[in-house]
Design brief:
The protein is α+β, with helices and mostly antiparallel strands. It has 6 helices and 10 strands; from the N terminus they run αβαβββββββααααββ. Strands 1-6-7-5 form a 4-stranded antiparallel sheet. A 4-stranded antiparallel sheet has the order 2-3-4-8, with helices on one face. A hairpin with a 2-residue loop joins β2 and β3. α1 packs across α6, α3 packs across α6 and α5 packs across α6. The longest helix has 20 residues. The radius of gyration is 20 Å and the shape is globular.
Length: about 280
């Protein structure tokens, strides 16, 4: 499932085609994805101007001049592509419709935005703009890891006394929003912290060190264009490159990249998810 860097990359890719433009026509080609689409979705979106595209955790939100916000979740295989952009950001014309093109936005600037989702685990919903943050999917989310509310003192306070493994704690969306399995593995490796360590038993200094490391890992992934694992594509169809720079994720049995370390990357399962780490470098 796309993580924060992939979703942020898609948001940035959609921005020049959608932000400030009017949805001239919204074609909704099926009644549901992961759950039913809102009533009269096509009618409510057609003619609406996109005031702003933003991201909250792993969700994209398009704030509209109709006092509603369109919530988009890519799911496991969802991807949004842009064609026909008059600003010259995208090189390809409108492609022929594909079987799994479930929602298509024709913008008044000539751009077309297509949401394609073969597995249909993605989702869209329309929320009242004024109360969007109280939506059940958003209401209990913690601070954004790249935002000002996520800082050293906050993380120390949140992890204090917790008996849960640090890997599980960082994946808890109530503690920090948007972090996923891949980038938590990468951050813990850079911090030298074993994924099985109890969150509350880690020293204050080491816990504090996680904040800038998490920020750096995410920033590098966003800069590289997100990861192209499984079915993810950027909005302009290009693949991401950060997966070539993974230090531990997906590298079970391969040599550790730390100079002078002779260990190999190990994999364990935690809460049904694979954790990759170096047993020698991470304590």
């Amino acid at each position: 499932m796309p993580e924060l860097p992939e979703v942020e990359t898609v948001r940035r890719g959609l921005q020049p085609a959608m932000e400030g433009a009017v949805i001239a026509n919204a074609a909704v080609n099926r009644p549901d994805l992961r759950w039913p689409f809102p009533e009269r979705m096509s009618e409510r979106l057609t003619g609406a101007k996109v005031l702003r595209l933003r991201r909250r955790s792993k969700y994209i939100l398009a704030d509209l001049d109709t006092d509603e916000s369109l919530l988009i979740h890519l799911g496991m295989s969802g991807r949004m592509t842009v064609s026909g952009d008059p600003l010259g950001q995208f090189a390809h014309d409108h492609p022929q419709a594909e079987k799994h093109d479930h929602v298509v936005f024709d913008m008044d600037n000539g751009a077309r935005v297509t949401f394609n989702d073969p597995r249909r685990f993605g989702a869209m919903d329309l929320l009242p703009l004024e109360t969007a943050e109280t939506h059940p999917l958003l209401a209990k989310l913690g601070p954004e890891p790249l935002g000002n509310d996520f800082h050293e003192s906050y993380l120390v306070e949140q992890l204090s006394g917790r008996n849960t493994p640090i890997k599980s704690a960082l994946l808890d969306q109530r503690i920090v929003a948007g972090l996923g399995n891949i980038y938590v593995c990468e951050a813990l490796y850079r911090a030298g912290i074993a994924p099985k360590r109890k969150a509350g038993a880690i020293s204050k200094e080491r816990t504090q060190s996680l904040v800038p490391i998490i920020r750096q890992v995410l920033a590098e992934a966003i800069e590289a264009g997100g990861s192209s694992l499984r079915d993810f594509r950027q909005a302009d169809g290009e693949l991401g490159y950060f997966q070539h720079s993974f230090d531990v994720y997906g590298r079970e049995g391969e040599p550790c990249k730390t100079p002078a370390c002779t260990s190999k990357i190990s994999r364990i399962t935690q809460s049904g998810r694979s954790s990759f780490y170096c047993a020698q470098c991470q304590r």
